[in-house]
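Quiz preparation item.
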C-alpha cells in the first residue's frame, strides 16, 4: 500500500475485511461454545464488536510499504470439497528476506479459502508459520471470557468494547504522531 493518504489505506483494508474475509465465521469460531450461551442480542452486539476489534488491530500496524518492499510466491494449492489451502512465501526486504536465497527466504503463509453461500470466495483463516489466526483469537477470547467473571458474556462484551476503545485511542495517537 504505497498511498500516502492513511484514510484511503484504512478504507481499502476495511473493504478487504468486509468483502474478502469470512468475518462472521471467524467471530463465531473464536468464541466457540460460548456462542450457544449468548442471547440473540448478545450475538448481534458481539458480531459488531468483533469486526470493530479486528479493525482496531490492523489499524495499529504501520501501513507504509514502498513499492518492491514486499513480494510473494504461491508455492502450492491444495483443494478438497469445501476448502482450498493456498501456500505462499512472503518476502519482506526490511526483514532481510532474499527471494534468491532459500535459507533466508521469507515466511510461510497459508490462506484457507472457502466459497460462501452466495458463491463468493472468502478467506476463512490465515496461518503464519503454522500459527492460525483463528486459534490465536480463540485462545485470547476464551481467556478474556473466563477471566472477566466466571464466563459471564456481558462482562466479556464490556471488556471487548474497552479494548477496542483503547486500541482506537492508541491508533489515533500514532496517527497524530505520524507513526504510520
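Solution:
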Amino acid at each position: 500500500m504505497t498511498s500516502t493518504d492513511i484514510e484511503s489505506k484504512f478504507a481499502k483494508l476495511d473493504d478487504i475485511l468486509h468483502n474478502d474475509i469470512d468475518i462472521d465465521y471467524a467471530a463465531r469460531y473464536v468464541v466457540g461454545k460460548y456462542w450457544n450461551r449468548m442471547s440473540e442480542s448478545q450475538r448481534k452486539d458481539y458480531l459488531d464488536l468483533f469486526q470493530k476489534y479486528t479493525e482496531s488491530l490492523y489499524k495499529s500496524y504501520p501501513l507504509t510499504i514502498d513499492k518492491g518492499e514486499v513480494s510473494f510466491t504461491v508455492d502450492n494449492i491444495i483443494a478438497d470439497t469445501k476448502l482450498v489451502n493456498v501456500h505462499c512465501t512472503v518476502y519482506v526486504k526490511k526483514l532481510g528476506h532474499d527471494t534468491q536465497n532459500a535459507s533466508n527466504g521469507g515466511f510461510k503463509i497459508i490462506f484457507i479459502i472457502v466459497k460462501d453461500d452466495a458463491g463468493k470466495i472468502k478467506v476463512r483463516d490465515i496461518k503464519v508459520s503454522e500459527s492460525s489466526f483463528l486459534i490465536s483469537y480463540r485462545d485470547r477470547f476464551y481467556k478474556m471470557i473466563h477471566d472477566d467473571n466466571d464466563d459471564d458474556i456481558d462482562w466479556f462484551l464490556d471488556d471487548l468494547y474497552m479494548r477496542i476503545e483503547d486500541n482506537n485511542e492508541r491508533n489515533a495517537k500514532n496517527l497524530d504522531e505520524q507513526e504510520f
